[in-house]
Amino acid sequence: MKRLCKILILLICNLFILNPVFSENKDLLTRVLDAKLHTRVCESPEAALVYLKDFKASLEAENAFADKDSIDCITLSNLLNNEIYIYMYETDASIQELKDFILAQYNEIEEWKSNHGEDEYTQWFILSTWDVVNQTMQFIPQTTAIRLGLKEKQEYDSLVQKYPDFSFGYMNAALWYYFAPAIGGGSKTVALNYLLKAVETASYDYEKFYSRIFCSQALYDKGDKETCKKLLEECDSVLPNNVYIPFIRFLNDNGFSLLYYTNNRDKVEKKIGKYKKN
């Protein structure tokens, strides 16, 4: 289960659309989405990390995090700090730095929960919280990680039932099903069906970009390379000059999917070498 959570850390990028959780300032959520997507045009993980920290500082200057008791604030904090953590991981931050950073966010969530009932939770709070929890699982006991992983699946299933047009919900659920072992409830068939729904229901560029990436790679693993190529071309239309799709094409051209690579990074790089931008 810890291995599954590590996979989800690398793949799940918190894919959000507008929703009443940000009813007071829908523009703020749009800006967060755009900032998260913008990291894929940054030349390096280091550049992406600098960009995200600068963006967060600009929001702090606008007092976007001032109301610590609001669900908007905790959800926004989850969104940005999870993304920052991902790029900290990619820039080889120390284990202690990663642990301190993500556990601080986890503790912020737990403190907020202690003062609020579950009836106040939104789907955005729930999913952004699970993204943070997934990051912490490498730092908690395995039995706890297994218990939380099963609860996570149940909540994903519930959310996609309750919100049938929720693209991000489909993506998170799909990744869980894709990487979980069959004996633990995983299913690549369910995963692909959810990813197709994620593409269908995507409304914002961030969703369109990542739903197509994940769906293309599930289709690649299934042998449908033509549809895979088409979806990757659509990603380039969504985000021109991005640095991510060329990397995925490099993997595909050498016989590997992004999904396989994520679970077998050392093995793949030993066989085909590390990707070098042209």
Short account of what is shown:
The protein has helices spanning 2-11, 26-38, 45-61, 71-90, 95-114, 123-136, 142-162, 167-179, 188-201, 205-222, 225-238, 244-253, 258-263, 265-272. It is mainly alpha-helical and 278 residues long.
Residue share in β-strands: under 5%
* Rg, alpha carbons: 18 Å
Low confidence ranges: 12-21
Shape: globular
Q: Quote the average pLDDT.
A: 88
Number of strands: 0
- Taken in chain order, the helices and strands follow as HHHHHHHHHHHHHH
User: Which structural class is indicated by helix and strand composition?
Assistant: mainly alpha
Sketch the major β-sheet: none
Count of helix runs? 14
Give the end-to-end Cα distance, rounded to a whole number of Å.
Answer: 37 Å
Portion in helices: over 70%
Walk me through this protein's architecture.
The chain is an all-alpha fold. It has 14 helices and no strands. Residues 12-21 have low confidence and may be disordered.
